[in-house]
Amino acid sequence: MLSTQRGGRPVAPEGYVGSEELLFGRAIGALPESASLAVAAHAALCPEASSIVHHHKAVAGALIETLDPAALDEGALDRALKAIEAEGDAGPVLPVAEPVRDGLDLPSVLRSYVGPDIEALRWKRVMKGVREAELPVSDGEICRTRLMHIDSGQPVLQHGHNGLELTLLLQGAYGDCTGEYRRGDLQVADEEIDHKPVAFGGEDCLCLVVTDAPIRFTGPFGRLLNLFVRYK
Length: 232
Ligand code: ZN
Description:
By secondary structure, this protein is an alpha+beta fold. It has a domain at about 115-225: Jelly Rolls (Sandwich), CATH 2.60.120. It is about 25% helix and about 25% strand. It has six helices and 13 strands. It has helices at about 20-25, 35-45, 45-65, 75-85, 110-115, 220-225; strands at about 1-5, 125, 130-135, 145-150, 160, 165-170, 175, 180, 185-190, 195, 200, 205-210, 215. The strands form three sheets. Strands 1-9-6-12-4-3-2 form a seven-stranded mixed beta sheet, with helices on one face. A hairpin with a 2-residue loop joins strand 7 and strand 8. The longest helix has 19 residues, at about 45-65. Zinc ion binds near residues 159, 165, 195 and 215. Zinc ion (ZN) binds near residues 159, 161, 165, 195 and 215.
């Protein structure tokens, strides 16, 4: 499931919950590496999302082939077709040379960023029961891309967003005021969403999170925290 909340109003094509904007962006190779990684990993875990990406690719490819080459800049047609054929690569999918040691079933596109052992990443404690590890992406100056581990039963501080926040659930489950999310679900939250995700279900939560702007804490304690920290 892809769930996109725009001020609590889902933009839902028939039979699908959420906006197709990100899937379309992925299909035509228009996303920055951080978002492309999140959407590619989502499509690897969600057959519905994968079929929508392929649909958009086919439509965009057919559309481009109907264009009059004379009306385009020299090479523009080739560049556009190459972008689509590349399936919006999220960056080089490097084979992981060593056997996977952490036992986690991660999409290969994500595994190439994580390496063979997730515990070998540089994890930092964010708060009690919550830790995160940065992943290297080419647009890292603008977007933060990281894995977040939340202990079972642990709530994340209530917060709003100053931009987009993509959260792909890789393990476990969490819920907030917008619903419940499980492995393969991609939640897209924007400036109008204020939430307090809580890991539930007896299993720790592992997420891939991409943000393009600092979040703002909105709970009673969090408002005070904003005076001291700027957390993206
Ligand atoms: Zn959030």
